[in-house]
């Protein structure tokens, strides 16, 4: 993503876990914030200790992220798990279409990028990713470097 070559990007990290990525990008001179559920006390404590600002929201299909008015240069999502509603019930083409169009319209600056690293470790998630790939590509999302890595506007 070449984040060491520029400074001052506004970055939103989806599903941040303990907040290591926003912490690292803030260290590199960017303005990064996390978006994650509030359910994991250890992760919440880590973000607080790392001084990572966090919007506590659960990512749900067909729902915008409430309370975020700002647009970002880069939105990232590593080892994505919000695309499941449990019981191996993964997002399909409709959910991903809404999600990508929502990011473009509400949260990305005109030339903003979205980097998505799917959690392809789980076999079912890998199958679902492959079945959604054509829809994602039709929305302008391209394969990046490794299996399961996708980028928009690179």
Q: How is this structure best summarized?
A:
This protein is an alpha/beta fold. Helix content is 31%, strand content 27%. A seven-stranded mixed β-sheet has the order 3-2-1-4-5-7-6, sandwiched between helices.
Name a few traits of the molecule.
single chain; 154 residues; alpha/beta; 4 helices; 31% helix; globular
Shape: globular
| Tally of DSSP helical segments | 4
- DSSP strand count: 7
Major beta-sheet overview? 7 strands, mixed
Overall average residue pLDDT = 87
What is the first-to-last residue Cα distance?
Answer: 9 Å
- Percent in strands: 25-35%
Class inferred from helices and paired strands: alpha/beta
Radius of gyration: 15 Å
Query: Residue ranges: pLDDT <50 for 5 or more in a row?
Result: none
Main sheet: strand order = 3-2-1-4-5-7-6
Portion in helices: 25-40%
The run of helices and strands is EHEHEEHEHEE
Can you walk through the features of this model?
The structure is a single chain. This protein has four helices and seven strands. The termini are close together. Strands 3-2-1-4-5-7-6 form a seven-stranded mixed β-sheet, with helices on both faces. It is of the alpha/beta class. The model has no long low-confidence stretch (mean pLDDT 87).
